[in-house]
Amino acid sequence: MKKYIPLLMVFGFLFFFQNCASQGSVDPKAVNALVDSQEFTFYAQRANPTNYDVLNVMTSMPNATATRMLNLDGSYTIDVSKNNLDVALPYFGRLYNATYANTTNNSYRFTSKDFTVTKSQNKKGKWILKIKPNDVKNVDEIIIEVYKNGKAYVSMRSNDRQPISYDGYIAKSEDKPEKEKL
Questions:
Q1: How many Å apart are CA 144 and CA 63, to the nearest integer?
Q2: What is the rounded distance in angstroms from the CA atom of residue 94 to the CA atom of residue 180?
């Protein structure tokens, strides 16, 4: 009987870690339905800047880890619908045409009504969406990679700044009330 106790402990730990790893994932059928309908919201959890000046400042701070990621609070999103693209993401990096009078233009905050979406899915079930907004002058392309468990990776390519990427997840779009006209 004493021989089986270590074996049961190993299986118990494996079962525990397997359950922890499966938390936070979404059913692959639900992810496919969200991407097929083009009605979803991407919630950014981390920003991954590529500018080494930003990375050097981040690592020079006291008690800082040498990571390339900035944790975000979940309020930064990309809302995708059939006729509207609403982007609200922060930007950390080098701007080539910065505006000092209106600093709200230095992050990614725009709404596009004229955009094209190209979807493709690989053999393993990962979706790749390439979104090209036609009515936004500084954003060239948004690439969203959606995995089977609902996790997503977004890469932003712009004309006037260095690229940046974001890690997060997708979920069903929430109904937002219409803003009253003043």
A1: 33
A2: 36
pLDDT in tens, 113-155: 999 999 999 888 899 999 999 998 889 999 999 999 999 999 9
Specify whether the backbone of 19 is left (phi greater than 0), alpha (psi in -120 to 50) or beta. alpha
Domains of the chain, with CATH numbers?
A: 27-172 (2.40.128.410)
User: What is the model's pTM?
Assistant: 0.76
Segment 68-92, tens digit of pLDDT: 567 888 789 999 998 999 999 998 8
CB-based burial label for 15 (10 Å; 0-12, 13-18, 19+): exposed
Beta bridge partners of 133: 115
Q: By CB neighbour count within 10 A (0-12 exposed, 13-18 middle, 19+ buried), where does 80 fall?
A: buried
Place of tokens 């940046």: 164
Q: What is the dihedral of CA 35, 76, 91, 78, to 10 degrees?
A: 30
